[in-house]
Amino acid sequence: MSYSFDAVIFDMDGVLTKTARVHAQAWEQVFDDYLHLREQKHGEAFKEFDINKDYLKYVDGKPRYKGVQSFLKSRKINLPFGEADDSPEKETCCGIGNRKNQIFNAILASDGADVFEPAIEFIQDIKASGIRVGLVSSSKNCQKIIRSAKIEGLFETIVDGVVSSRLGLKGKPAGDAFVTAAFQLNTTPERSVVVEDATSGVQAGRNGGFRLVIGVARKHNEKSLFKYGADVVIRDFSPLSKEWIEEWFQRSPELLFDRWKKPEPKKNDIDFLKGIIKNFHYSRSPKDLLFSRQKTVFFLDYDGTLTPIVDRPDMAILSPDMRSTVRSLSKKHLTAVVSGRMREDVERLVGIDGLFYAGSHGFDIKGPRFEMTLPEVQEIIPDIRKITERLTHTFGSLDGAIVEHKKFSVAMHYRLVQEKHVAGIREFVENIIKENKKLRLMCGKKVFEILPALYWNKGKAICWIMKALQLSWKNTRVVYIGDDTTDEDAFRVIRHNGLGILVSHDPKPSSAHFRVISPDDVKKLFEMIISHS
Predict the structure, then answer these.
(1) Are strands 410-413 and 402-405 parallel, antiparallel or unpaired?
(2) Helices and strands in the chain: count of H runs, count of E runs
(3) DSSP letters of 353-397?
(4) How much is the pLDDT for 275?
(5) Which residues contact 16 (CB under 8 A, 6 or more apart)?
(6) Around Cβ 337, how many Cβ atoms within 10 Å?
(7) CA-to-CA distance for 256 and 250, rounded, in angstroms?
(8) Which residues in 166-193 are b (16+ Cβ under 10 Å) and which e?
(9) Which residues are catalytic?
(10) pLDDT, tens digit, 9 for 90 and up, residues 225-270
(11) Could you tell me if 88 and 95 are in contact, meaning their C-beta atoms sit under 8 angstroms apart?
């Protein structure tokens, strides 16, 4: 059987191995020792480290030294961060972290590492079906632990604390380690699953744009895992199967205006005791969400969202009515257009001052108060120019073929090409990708697009704009509306921080929350929002 997902990437402690208890025990000892020391030296009242509260909130899932820093700050203790080679006796975050590591290794050597057998059986089952398996851990003791647990042969790639340090990867909640693991497994986040038990880990999966983030609530912390980005939560692996994951990947968003008429689901509709919680984050109706008093930001695709899909890119002209509606929306809510077109192109086509424009799938961004071009894409420009010339030379005379040069990418449109020629076009562009590892291929609606092979997309662009505008995800409702493959990157990133709306006449798998039929429905939605703002 062929599956829609290629890989499952697991955290280690608390998901596969029972070392979370050992870690917690080591943290408790090192922190209590240090807090007693401060009591003796500074006369500070001793308050013990609470495994049930402090460990989960400040330490679990984070790189060791960051965990020390996080907990100490919670006690209003500010120590120098120090260096990784600080002695365990040195009064720095790194020194305390190294002391914890000594204690952890002593306990591990004495007791060994046990595993959660159902989790290991699940890995063996998916591997037998050709699904790739990776391991991500913040721990620099990862290799030692998996050898102790006798599971080192299960993983095709391991990105642990040692690898992350060598590659300069940001620690959780950044998604760098999981994304790196996906790439090392020759796949992408949109075709991969993350399995995590820490809130910082599920945040990392969400921030990395993974299609499915599964939280493991061994500590009965379902609500916090949901809060920080888990799509579903399990208490153990017994209800999980590759068939269930495939069903998730194939799920289609329900029609927005149909859901609009339904009452709120009752809390007891979510059964925390069934293992998997089939909750799509929102318990309220979209009407309540869109008409809330919370600050709302709209991110909009252009082709297929503000304008209908047409045979030729140059025919996608924004109607005067839609332009007027978007202008009215932008006067009430911050609005940005995020398009695969060149930024100058989409800015000219929309023609509304004061909007934020992100072109070339987010590589090029400009707004009233800032502009940014991702520095790494500059070196790709000569390659894209040469490839554009090759495509034009090869297919320029083919009836219906359109080569669209976009500065940072090139699109090969084949909507008007006879079907018998499509396989040849695909083979040609795939060979170009094989020749140049700096490029990747994206397949959209009747288009093959060659882009830089960078970890950057519409989802990352939205995060960049939010940060540039100093907008808090917690206090801002983000709405993204789009219709195509590249819009899925945005839907995945905002899933737990916003509302994703797919524009599609027919049902299809998507990470969006809801679906509308056409740009006319988008306009209708805008008009309703404007009238209630």
Answers:
(1) antiparallel
(2) 19, 19
(3) TT-EEEEGGGTEEE-SS-EEE-GGGGGGHHHHHHHHHHHHHHHTT
(4) 33
(5) 10, 115, 116, 119, 120, 123, 135, 149, 151
(6) 25
(7) 18
(8) eeebebbbbbbbbbbbbbbbebbbbbbb
(9) 11, 13
(10) 888 889 888 888 988 899 999 999 998 998 988 877 765 544 433 3
(11) yes
429, HSE (Cβ side, Cα atoms, 13 Å): 27
Residue count of the chain:
533
Which residue has 């695909």 as its token pair? 426
Q: Are 134 and 182 in contact (CB under 8 A)?
A: yes
Helices (H), 57-134: 64-74, 93-111, 117-128
| pLDDT bucket at 304, cuts 50 / 70 / 90 | very high
Pair of tokens at residue 33:
């020792």
Contact at 8 Å (CB) between 365 and 456?
no
Task: Report the C-alpha dihedral over residues 58, 63, 66, 67, rounded to 10 degrees.
Answer: 30
Instruction: Write the pLDDT tens digit of every residue in 53-111.
Output: 888 788 887 888 999 999 999 999 999 999 999 999 999 999 999 999 899 888 878 77
- Lookup result for tokens 């919670």: 74
DSSP conformation class of 51: I
Q: Are 410 and 388 in contact (CB under 8 A)?
A: yes
The Cα 33–Cα 41 span in angstroms is: 12
